[in-house]
User: What shape does this take?
Amino acid sequence: MSPGRAIAVASALVASLGAAACDEGGGGDDLAAVALAGGDLTIFDRSSNAFRMPAPNLSDEEARRHLDGDAAFEAAFVTAPAPVHAGLGPGFNHFSCTGCHPRDGRGMAVAGSDTLLSPLLVRVSLAPGAGDPAYPGGPVPVPGLGTQIQDHAVYGQAPEASVALTWDEVPGEYADGTPYTLRRPRLDIRLPDGSPLGDEVLTSPRIPSPVFGLGLLEAVPEAALEAAADPDDADGDGISGRVNRVWNPRVGAMTVGRFGWKANTADLAAQTAGAYLNDMGVSSQYAPDDDGSWELADDVVADTTFYVQTLAVPAPHDLGGADVARGERAFRQMGCDGCHTPTLETGPHEIGALAGQRFHPYTDLLLHDMGEGLADGRPDGEADGREWRTSPLWGLGLTQTVLPGATYLHDGRARTVSEAILWHGGEAEPAREAFRTADLRTRAALLAFLQSR
Ligand code: HEC
Ligand code: HEC
Ligand SMILES: [Ca+2]
Ligand SMILES: [Ca+2]
Ligand SMILES: [Ca+2]
Assistant: This one.
């Protein structure tokens, strides 16, 4: 859809709902405002391409730059020397960004040196104190493996390790007696000589996250995140979100973390440069090779960063549906919005299209203790082994439209949205219990609400 057309559709939608696009009244958001899930970056597309659309409010020049970034995101890298896209490896997890983020959505909970099917990756480290951290509070690298296992290698090189993934079943029951089965991942990691990874190595499997709408999340002022945090639960509601603090290579200082499943990366430039280096083996200025040299020109990293900063957000659908309205009430009554904050606002940003937007991601970008069930036991920045960043819920209902077979939560263990909710524990245990003990009709309404986003 062209930008002009998207705006026309937006205005028509807003007009048909008979309300103003911006709810300045301070009260609850009306339907038309919620429909603009990404503010001026909203598009009206519920197809399998819904996550890969440019923001409709870019200038012509910005739209061209977005296209350059799109090409870079899709480029398949090869072993150097090569005329284009050289520098893959020696170790890598995939040869392109899009290989792990298909159609700019999430990847799959699959592993194995023989698969390139948008695989999960495994972060590793030693317990803090057992070695020298790469930066204050950062994960302690494992000798020979670093902080991530590259289980693929270019021709003639051996991968660092092999990763096999199997599932253990975990039975449970809704309060009304309906049984369900959850599954928990079991990793079998082998070094090249066939020996298992030592017990001292902490591991954290993570599926590739969706990448649309992230410019908006980046443009939320740090002060707003700090203000929403309640580390000691001063208001006594049982929820104690905290910000993560991580090393920001471009700034050369610790800043608030907001990307990655543990908010373990500072900004999209750092995430992109880190992905080129760690996921693809392609070094660049802010993520160089060990000897300080690098392979990729800075403008390519900048264009790829710009691309993930300027992807649009799909509007929700069926907003007027009775079940959706009932489900939204249940979402609040169960306390889901204690972490999945419906509305955030951006401050200033160097990309004008991102500045001053009111949008609806359903996340506070904060870390929460999610209990033993979801714990990876591996600290990352200031996040401890039980903490995860609240996942945005925008686009949730399109997850399996964009990638059939895609699953939920940081390691993709949840095959359905219900399973994702049933894994919630720790600070989210009361919310999970509210869901588990609700009657079938209320559960169905909640799921209808989530699928409408
Ligand atoms: C091997 C698979 C893989 C490849 C290749 C890959 N990613 Fe990722 N990506 C991931 C995983 C896994 C995460 C979650 C990381 C974490 O939690 O630590 C992620 C997270 C991200 C995020 C943060 C999303 C969020 O909501 O926090 C962005 C942005 C991103 N990747 C962009 C890129 C770009 C740009 C490239 C290419 C330069 C790329 N990725 C290549 C697997 C991959
Ligand atoms: C205490 C904070 C908190 C509360 C309360 C909470 N969540 Fe979450 N939610 C999270 C965090 C953190 C994650 C990421 C966990 C992970 O990936 O391991 C998450 C993940 C999810 C996911 C999976 C998203 C994805 O992209 O894979 C869904 C769906 C979800 N929550 C729905 C709900 C619903 C519905 C409720 C209310 C019944 C709820 N949550 C209550 C913090 C919370
Ligand atoms: Ca390389
Ligand atoms: Ca490694
Ligand atoms: Ca609190």
